[in-house]
Amino acid sequence: xxxxxxxxxxxxxxxxxxxxxxxxxxxxxxxxxxxxxxxxxxxxxxxxxxxxxxxxxxxxxxxxxxxxxxxxxxxxxxxxxxxxxxxxxxxxxxxxxxxxxxxxxxxxxxxxxxxxxxxxxxxxxxxxxxxxxxxxxxxxxxxxxxxxxxxxxxxxxxxxxxxxxxxxxxxxxxxxxxxxxxxxxxxxxxxxxxxxxxxxxxxxxxxxxxxxxxxxxxxxxxxxxxxxxxxxxxxxxxxxxxxxxxxxxxxxxxxxxxxxxxxxxxxxxxxxxxxxxxxxxxxxxxxxxxxxxxxxxxxxxxxxxxxxxxxxxxxxxxxxxxxxxxxxxxxxxxxxxxxxxxxxxxxxxxxxxxxxxxxxxx
Length: 362
Hints:
Blueprint: E1 6-9, E2 17-20, E3 73-81, E4 87-97, E5 100-109, E6 116-121, H1 134-141, E7 146-150, H2 165-170, H3 172-193, E8 197-206, H4 207-219, E9 223-229, H5 235-241, H6 256-263, H7 267-270, E10 278-284, H8 292-301, E11 307-311, H9 314-320, H10 328-333, H11 346-349, E12 350-353, E13 360-361
Parallel strand pairs: 6-7, 6-8, 8-9, 9-10, 10-11, 11-12
Antiparallel strand pairs: 1-2, 3-4, 4-5, 5-7, 12-13
């Protein structure tokens, strides 16, 4: 089966183009449903932990340690075997907050015990459907990495998945903090499993998920590698110009009280405090989801050792990251012999990729 990458053009009303890694024909996207035995939970079985204890989430802090959560509830909904038994996928239902279950996918390479981990969090309005795709899973585990994907309130499969864009954006400030907490809570759960190498954790985060990824990486040193694609941020610039804002509603999101609710949690403020040893940010110019001014401010805030890739347009990005190469950088940075990035001159770490031969300029 040949693999390829493409872009998913979302409904024109949203005017949004995000990178979507899609491999093979649509008829082959779903994994083979071949149940296997689980040593821990059987499909439909819930972990013996209870939801006892007080629940109090601090939405003024990016660090989950400042909140109090009950023991996580975990239900295994389905365990499947990938094509040729290359990987095994667990579809779990996890409940970190009472009455608020979330989907979690743990995809494990079959040939390796205790693999290193890469977390994947995507952008509104995407859903967890990609984690069910056979070829996405094959690409994610191909080099011996466990792939962890989960739903979040900043994605399209939030509990109220039918929210309009306006309602989604109204709830975005609190959901951004919840998503940053979700990332840390997922890592806490993974640490209890005993079948993963949590000494080597990477994260690929896109769009609104990229915003949460930056916050989480400033709070949690377990995230050693951070790769963000088109993160939202620089809020005054973003909400003044982004195409995500519904027609005729922009004034709602430019009110001082709304911008103030997000000001403390702007990726521009937290990116310099990122605790990852290797960081990459990728942005596509000539698109109207994340305005160029916002992109520049977020890039300028990145750690002074971060690799910054700027693509002239989505066509150039597609050409350069085709054939399933999207995950390669994160995986390479997690290898045991990989060296942490060091501070470099601007011309050596910031690259602009143009069309027709991919000219690179400072």
